[in-house]
Amino acid sequence: MKTFYLLILLLTATCIKANAQAAEYGKIDTADLKLSSCDFDKGANAMVLFDVAKVSYTKTEAIVMERHKRIKIFNDKGTSEANIRLEFYGAHSNEDIKNIQAETINLVGNTIVVTPLDPKLIYNEKVDKERRAVVFTLPNVKTGSVIEVKYTWKTHYGYNYPDWLFQGLLPKRYSKLEASINYGYFFNIIKKLTQKLDVDTSFVPKGDRARTHVWSLSKIPGFRIEPLMHSVEDNLQGIYFKPSRGFRTWPSIGRDIIDDPDFGGQLKLPLDKEAQLIADANAIKDEHEKIAYLFNTVKNTMKWNKEDKWYSESGLKKAWLNKTGNSTEINLVLYHFLKQAGVKASLLVLGTRDHGELELANPSFGRLNKTVVRVPIDSLNFYVMDATGKYNTYNDTPYELLGLNMLTIDPEANSTGLRLLTTPNVIRLTTAVPSTEVVFVNAGINSAGKLEGSVQKTSSNYKRTSKLEVFDNIGIKKYIEDELKEGNSNLEVTGHQFSNMEVDTLPLREDFNFKMELTSSDEHYIFINPNLFTGLGPNPFISEMRLSDIDFIFLNTYSIHGRYNVPVGYKIDAIPKNITIVMQDNSIVFKRVLGEVQGTVIVKYTISFYKTKYTRDEYPELRQFFKTMYEMLNEQIVLKKD
User: Which of 84, 130, 447, 513 has the smallest C-beta neighbourhood within 10 Å, fewest atoms?
Assistant: First the structure.
């Protein structure tokens, strides 16, 4: 009995402590106004003091969420948090946001000054075909301010239960969800967490038809953008509600897409001057050449407006006539021409990496934002085509699509299904030669004491494509500074030129000369770091903690060769030892071989990646491997004056 009462006291104390983390709207502790930094996430520009919500069903079985959020501003950069944007699916009154209250709280001397938001400054905005947004800016916000927002979110669909994200880009001192689920509604409740919950309980109030869940979490660090990660949404800590019964299925979503006038309704509309284009295509007897002709015609005619949507915004006729469109419009035009030319084709609808990958257990439109075309080659193989990329080809799956879940749609057969994309194109990357970077450095010490030489680099497959995309985006000057010199002010690059830029069947080749100051050398010793122009960049895994999974997207092999001539009057004092290191699961192999041949140091590094994805749980081993590998890459050749 004593144990029972002790348990009740402990639970009561926990609830009191948790409730103390939030406050009524408009009531604030002066200590929060005087707060100058976040004690658990140093350097944050602002911090969420609390973010709490209560979700329940109404008598008509609509779902209502009452949410209250308060943010502390630490510096001028943090004042941008005053720009509030609340997005919701409101195109067909699916969802709505009402009862908005917002205010800014400042401490002036010892006086608390409250500036409420003028309701006339709240604006409604159309985001796209499905989404709407409520937009406003809090007044009188400056360093030291506290802002708070309270609103009601509502949906009339009983299975449209809102997920709850404990984590965001700002650190959160406290986050709590109280969720009541009516009898008769069934959800798989998925917890994505890397921290232990402060409160994790559920109960059924006496006489109630709902089970109430309470979850809370404290001192949640702000999510940071990390190298080689998926979208932020794929990695945030939160509670996710997935209907366990047939509220929505992927086939039903596929049928809705086919029936949508801005998708399926566009596919059979005639396009401007298409008769001649189809006649020219049908004059080509080889099926693969016909596909290549239509793909290149669309790719070279239409310009991508850099927008990804799962549907057509302006209509295919207008997009084709204006020669510009979003990714789905361009690829639906390609699909239309392929079908008109008698080519068997279907469609794949997906969520891109930066938007958020489709979840097998969560059928919804929320993560759909792009359409590409699929054409079978034989019973096992098929092309996956995206005509929006300048360097994409008809017969190589764009690397951005590798490994993603995709909704397959065949408008002609009216069949749909979600499949993990394990096409021959993806499988081929694991069995054939992966994308390769090959580097040859030929250098020696000149009369001025500088390392001087020439470099040849070749990049194949996806390495070639990604490098050309970077070059197009930043230009030659920044490419040399960022990609080749990597910010090294002691390095000078001259005479750079590309070869095979227009021949996608050949590796991309680069040739250039360089000179580099050897700043660590003195009158007795010369130190040479052979980690030059490798294409590896700085070590991406410096941080001790990792918040997201790692995705290299495609397999890589680096083959780095160097010849360093020893100048007259010097001899080799030390060279790095030959060594091989291997990840425990054999997914990465690093080999280093060095030797001397007639006064020349010969260097060879080989790095082979046999795996593209690692979970955050595998990060410690991956981080340690990269730390060791980069130390070995940067180990120096030492020459001594003879």
Answer: 447
